[in-house]
Design brief:
The complex is a heterodimer of chains A (about 500) and B (about 260). Chain A has helices spanning about 1-15, 30-45, 60-70, 80-85, 95-110, 130-135, 140-145, 155-160, 165-175, 185-195, 210, 235-240, 240-250, 255-270, 275-285, 305-310, 310-345, 350-365, 365-375, 380-405, 410-415, 420-450, 465-475, 475-505; strands at about 25, 50-55, 75-80, 115, 125-130, 150-155, 180, 200-205, 215, 230-235. Chain A has about 500 residues and is α/β, with parallel strands linked by helices. Chain A has three domains: about 20-120 and about 225-300, Periplasmic binding protein-like II (D-Maltodextrin-Binding Protein, domain 2, 3-Layer(aba) Sandwich); about 125-215, Osmoprotection protein (prox), domain 2 (D-Maltodextrin-Binding Protein, domain 2, 3-Layer(aba) Sandwich), CATH 3.40.190.120; about 310-505, MetI-like (MetI-like fold, Orthogonal Bundle). In chain A, the strands form three sheets. A five-stranded mixed sheet of chain A has the order 7-6-8-5-9. A three-stranded antiparallel sheet of chain A has the order 3-10-4, sandwiched between helices. In chain A, strands 1-2 form a two-stranded parallel ribbon. In chain A, α17 (about 310-345) packs antiparallel against α22 (about 420-450) and α20 crosses α22 (about 420-450). Chain A is elongated. Chain B has helices at about 20, 65-70, 95-100, 115-120, 125, 135-145, 150, 160-175, 190-210, 220-225, 245-250, 255-260, and strands at about 5-10, 15, 25-35, 40-50, 55-60, 80-85, 90, 100-105, 180-185, 210-215, 230-235, 235-240. In chain B, the strands form three sheets. Chain B has a six-stranded mixed sheet with strand order 8-9-10-5-11-12, sandwiched between helices. In chain B, strands 4-3-6-7 form a four-stranded antiparallel sheet, with helices on one face. A two-stranded antiparallel ribbon of chain B has the order 1-2. Helix content of chain B is about 35%, strand content about 25%. Chain B starts with 5 loop residues before the first strand and ends with a helix. Chain B has two domains: about 1-95 and about 180-185 and about 200-265, P-loop containing nucleotide triphosphate hydrolases (Rossmann fold, 3-Layer(aba) Sandwich), CATH 3.40.50; about 100-175, no CATH class. Chain B has twelve helices and twelve strands. Classes of the chains: A alpha/beta (about 500), B alpha/beta (about 260). Chains A and B meet through α21 and α22 of A and α3, α5 and α8 of B.
């Protein structure tokens, strides 16, 4: 059974990368990372190098894991993140010192290279509404520390946990808040603007800081370490693709903080498509030929339906990819969970333990499960299929076991009394009578699976999670809906088709 | 040739022989004991049932009557003692093959709900790989008063409770077994339907002459259908006798009281 699963995974992986290896460009799931990665990709393509995009990889863990395992070749990273989050070292204040340190350590440990910094820092910023800043006289983080106990903070989970985030800030400034809520980047700004929270963390290059007229508090004690952006490249690229390294090095020192903030605003506030923003940035820098179209449609004002219609080809292929992920993982789960569920009926003592084990898998957060699998399976389709497979096991296993166990006890007893063997009872009585219950479990698993498969985007497996992840990163609800609506329709469709099959397997002619 | 059959002798006189002397009993329990955890279900029960005889097992809930019945086709394995069918120890053979030779009628019919009537009745012929299973099943349906043309293609859920029990009886009889076990076969039916089925059962048994063991909580039914009635109490055999003898000579005060309350004495 596991051989079958591996064969399916292998098949899917081969479909994914049929030819000689292109340069795999990754990014983390936020606007700046997307646009920088897209610039890397277009620059490489302009220099005649084939590229595969794996944008929006979960977070630092997943993007870095992908680079280390060779599943990605390059992604934009920040020196401070490398020092603190990846190397787990203490912050240092001097940008050059940090860059030297991560360059040396990454090369020594993993054979990775930090290309020359792009030219801007994107460090953490702590921001408040202008009204809050004016009424409380806030200009610096030291000012905030005086009044923090009266304010509510909404911080990204990342920031709450990392040493250069909230814990460090509390140590450096003695900062305390009335309350701290974990908020995803996508809702943080709206929550602040709506007065749900008073203080948020952000990035110094955020396009939203201008849009919401926020005040960034000055880091007067130089607590936040330098976060210089640079292309981080993996061992394979560093050692075997000097052409790609040369192309990416062309960007070194070319992007200052104003340029980056402007690009982010075009993405996050104006809702311009990432490829266009990236292309025009490269043209302006003289790294790419071509012209800049003066007229830009105010694309964000477009309705969701019109947007989806324009994106229909992309959405269709994402939907197909999504369906493929669901069908393969669900098929494998059925192939495993139904026989195992039937087998469990023979060992009633151990059955509950096995089923609870599958239930525990179900409670693992999707992203966590995906992160665990990167060292084993890299990124892309394989870990996504395994995760979806694992999530599908429980409902099928549970329903198969209880369906078969509870199927028509009088009929089972009579069959036994008239000389049916246990195997015959299973085959001719329990299984056909349990079929509708098993089918219901498969339907449950399928609907869960369609929803969970949107997480596959975070490990570069594609599917309808791509526009959802990008939309969340860019606070673009239209983009989110363009992935979420087809996913919901797909769930209904899969459930409907399986419902039709259920009638077909129902014993006794319905 | 069965039961207390009249045997013609050379001199023209007819002699009634007790079966135990002519050939081995069709069914025999020898000092059978069975415990379920702390509960003693059977506590050394011995009894012989002659070929062609119908014995009813009666007693209160927990008296061990169903457990005893289930020992005969090895649905229950006794802890001690011996159970013989046709003189052979059931513990020696394959229980599955044994069960395919013994008819069985459970209380709630136990028809397979996803099989049509004819397929249900043809279950045992199919299990034994007999040819003409459907023909035999049709004949069995006729035997219990159900026209195959009208009933063969129907689903169990479309039948009345009485019809379902008739199908269950037909299923037990499809291969004309020598022994049929019935576990409260008519207990869940209303009085009129029950009376119909009881007379069908009597007629079928008269025609086929099989050996029957019948568990029932209805003492009147036991007296109507059985040649002998065995009264069980707390896993022990209190008395086994013909209805007439039980009525006229109850062996213990318990039996006398049981019959008095059932208003059959």
């Amino acid at each position: 059974m596991s051989a079958l699963l591996l064969a399916l995974l292998w098949g899917a992986a081969v479909v994914q990368t049929p030819e000689a290896a292109p340069v795999v460009v990754g990014s983390k799931p936020f606007g700046e990372s997307y646009v920088l990665a897209e610039m890397f990709a277009q620059l490489l393509e302009a220099r005649g190098i084939r590229v595969q995009r794996r944008l929006g990889l979960g977070a630092t863990e997943i993007a870095f894991g992908a680079l280390r395992s060779g599943a990605a070749d390059v992604y934009p990273e920040y020196t401070g993140t490398g020092l603190l989050a990846i190397l787990g070292e203490r912050p240092a204040a001097d940008p050059a010192e940090v860059y030297d340190r991560v360059s040396r350590e990454f090369r020594r440990r993993w054979g990775m290279r930090w290309l020359p910094p792009l030219g801007f820092e994107n460090t953490y910023a702590v921001a408040v509404r202008r009204g809050t800043a004016d009424s409380l006289g806030l200009r610096t983080l030291s000012d905030l520390a005086r009044v923090g106990a009266r304010l509510r903070a909404g911080l990204t989970p990342d920031f709450i946990g990392r040493p250069d985030g909230l814990p460090g800030l509390q140590g450096a400034y003695g900062l305390r808040f009335a309350g701290v809520r974990a908020l995803l980047p996508a809702v943080k700004y709206q929550a602040l603007a709506a007065g749900e929270v008073d203080v948020i963390d952000g990035y110094s290059t955020d396009g939203f800081i201008a849009r919401y007229d926020l005040v960034v508090l000055r880091d007067d004690r130089r607590f936040f370490p330098p976060y210089e952006a640079a292309a981080l490249i993996g061992r394979r690229l560093a050692e075997h693709r000097p052409d790609a390294v040369a192309a990416l090095t062309e960007l070194g020192g070319r992007l200052d903080v104003e340029t980056m903030r402007r690009l982010n605003r075009r993405l996050e506030v104006d809702g311009e498509p990432i490829p266009r923003v990236a292309r025009e940035a490269l043209v302006e820098l003289g790294l790419l030929g071509g012209t800049i179209e003066p007229a830009r449609s105010a694309s964000r004002r477009q309705g969701v339906w019109q947007y989806m219609w324009e994106q229909r080809r992309t959405l269709a292929s994402l939907t197909a990819r999504h369906l493929l992920l669901v069908l393969i993982s669900l098929g494998a789960a059925v192939a495993v969970a139904v026989p195992v569920g039937l087998g469990l009926e023979r060992l009633p003592g151990g059955a509950e333990g096995v089923i609870r084990g599958a239930g525990v898998l179900q409670t693992l957060p999707g992203i966590a499960l995906l992160a665990f699998m990167i060292p084993l399976l890299g990124i892309g389709v394989a870990p996504a299929l395994v995760a979806l497979f694992l999530y599908s096991l429980y409902p099928i296993l549970r329903n198969t076991y209880s369906g078969v166990r509870d199927a028509a006890p009088e009929a089972v007893a009579a069959g036994r009394a008239l000389g049916m063997t246990p195997r015959q009872i299973l085959r001719w009585v329990r299984l056909p009578l349990a079929a509708p219950v098993i089918m219901a479990g498969i339907r449950t698993a399928a609907v869960i699976n369609v929803g969970t498969a949107t997480l596959a985007a975070f490990i570069g497996a594609g599917g309808l999670g791509d526009p959802i992840a990008a939309g969340l990163a860019l606070s673009d609800s239209r983009m989110i809906l363009s992935g979420a609506l087809p996913a919901a329709l797909l769930a209904l469709l899969v459930d409907g088709v399986l419902g039709w099959c259920e009638r077909w397997v129902r014993p006794g002619g319905g | 040739m069965h039961g207390h059959a009249p045997l013609a002798r050379g001199d023209g006189r007819v002699l009634f022989l007790p079966m135990s002397q002519s050939r081995p009993a069709a069914l025999e329990a020898v000092a059978v004991a069975k415990r379920f955890g702390p509960v003693t279900a059977l506590d050394g029960v011995s009894l012989e049932i002659a070929a062609g005889e119908c014995v009813a097992l009666i007693g209160e809930s927990g008296s061990g009557k169903t457990t005893l019945l289930r020992c005969f086709n090895r649905l229950t394995h006794p802890d001690q003692g011996q159970v013989l069918v046709g003189g052979a120890d059931v513990a020696r053979g394959d229980p599955v093959l044994l069960r395919r030779t013994i008819g069985y009628v459970p209380q709630e019919g136990g028809l397979l709900p996803h099989w049509r009537v004819l397929r249900n009745v043809a279950l045992v012929p199919w299990l034994r790989g007999e040819p003409d299973g459907e023909a035999k099943a049709s004949a069995a349906l006729r035997l219990v008063g159900l026209e195959p043309e009208a009933f063969a293609r129907r689903w169990p859920r479309d039948l009345s409770g009485g019809q379902r029990q008739r199908v269950a009886v037909a299923r037990a009889l499809a291969l004309r077994p020598e022994v049929v076990l019935l576990d409260e076969p008519f207990g869940a039916l209303d009085a009129i339907t029950r009376a119909d089925l009881q007379s069908t059962f009597l007629a079928v048994r008269r025609e086929l002459g099989f050996t029957a063991v019948l568990v029932t909580h209805d003492i009147a039914e036991a007296f109507l259908l059985a040649d002998r009635v065995a009264v069980l109490r707390e896993g022990r055999l209190e008395q086994i006798d013909s209805p007439e003898r039980l009525r006229t000579a109850p062996g213990t005060p318990y039996v006398a009281e049981l019959l008095r309350r059932a208003r059959v004495a």
